[in-house]
Amino acid sequence: MKEKILSVGIDIGTSTTQLVFSNLTIENTASAFSIPKIRIVDKKVIYKSEIYFTPLRSAIEIDGESVRKIIEKEYKRARIQPEDVDTGAVIITGETARKENASMVLNKLSGLAGDFVVATAGPDLESIIAGKGAGADLLSKTKRSIVANLDIGGGTTNISVFKDGEIIDTTCLDIGGRLIKINPKTMRLEYISEKIKKLAEKMRISLEVNKEIRINDIKAITNRMSEILEEVLGVKEATEDLNLLLTTKDLKRNYNIEYISFSGGVADCTYEEDSYSNNFQYGDIGIILGKSIKDSILFEKFSIYKPPETIRATVVGAGSHTTDISGSTITFTKDIFPLKNIPILKLSEEDEKLNYQSLSQRIKEKVEWFNLDNGNQQVALSLKGVKNLSFKELQAMAESIIAGMKEILNLNIPLIVVVENDIAKALGQTIHRYLGYKKDVVCIDSVRVENGDFIDIGKPLANGRVVPIVIKTLAFGY
């Protein structure tokens, strides 16, 4: 039996705020004698809002009321009532996620309709979401290759690297179209970010707010930004300027990228540079930055893939619910359910082949993907897990998880582990014992999730043998 649900996606970014409505068709894809597996079998975008500049009260505060008015206005234009919406995602990304009242705005907007996925995306998680939205994961899987997606927005460039459909690396740089704002009529600077001002000073270019800027200086700065993108992708040797603009860890560059794609607002300026007659029609450097990237050696060194979605890559669809039941061998040390909107941190199969120390270090690195400026957030660690583990292998896995999740264990929240294979009971009990029975542990199995997913875990059923789960997937329109 197929069922249609209405989904909304709301993305509040550094530069823009937008909304998309989609019809999602869900269906039980399991056989008649199996546990139901509800999956999305079709998705269709039925309404795309205007793209608005994100309203701010100040340099450090989002104008939550104005954002809400934008969303309410677009609901009316789409002729959709909040009660008609079954599910959705509200995500704050880029520099906007760093604003002081980001969490408050998210919670306020999530009340518009339904039980939303609500997330402030840190730079690494945003990179993954944007890469999926651009289809870079699917391209890497189809081509059996390594693909890097550069999501270039107003404030940041989020880079995600995929191999055979799996995320293997991420980074984020302060490179974006609105890091310099200009009055198109007077050519006077209205805003310049501190990092770009430092970069300009190193180039012996003086930039001051309210002072006129020369077009040649702008081109010199955007050309340098483009060169730094060449550095981060390994085309040129890394310089101190790359370290200046990095907002998180650098790419490892121990792999060979074959394809690159561009998403985000500046991507449109890169792919369609000839369609802009006025370089400053948006009052920023986005169009010129796009042209600098187009003229760079990136277009010579890599095969270029143009995704179906560019500026809307981060949230083209919205939260879609996939209902499931966990396996029958689970561990939970206290009835702390329901647990809601927990982001997934998934280990790759290559990660799971690492030894104890390497695996724990890899988990630590991936936990950092979810770090925000105001600290850590709860995540659920996901792994495939080996069937028929020996006792020593089970102990080593438990020790790796505990060491890798140390920052999460320091928070007053339960440790959540989601396993694909049927080992949750033994693994969960081993972890609990190694933690001295002092930390709440939830370990469930027979669940397949992906990075970028969120999970809800409901109250236990069947005398505590299973728990109902909801996997919330950002449904992207490839």
From TrEMBL:
Pfam family, one: EutA
Listed InterPro entries: ATPase_NBD (IPR043129), EutA (IPR009377), FtsA/MreB (IPR050696)
SUPFAM superfamilies listed in its UniProt record: Actin-like ATPase domain (SSF53067)
Superkingdom assignment: Bacteria
PANTHER family given in the database record: CELL DIVISION PROTEIN FTSA-RELATED, ETHANOLAMINE AMMONIA-LYASE REACTIVASE EUTA
UniProt-listed NCBIfam families: PRK10719.1-3 (NF007992)
Protein name per the record: Ethanolamine ammonia-lyase reactivating factor EutA
Species this chain originates from: Anaeromonas frigoriresistens
Organism classification: Bacteria, Bacillati, Bacillota, Tissierellia, Tissierellales
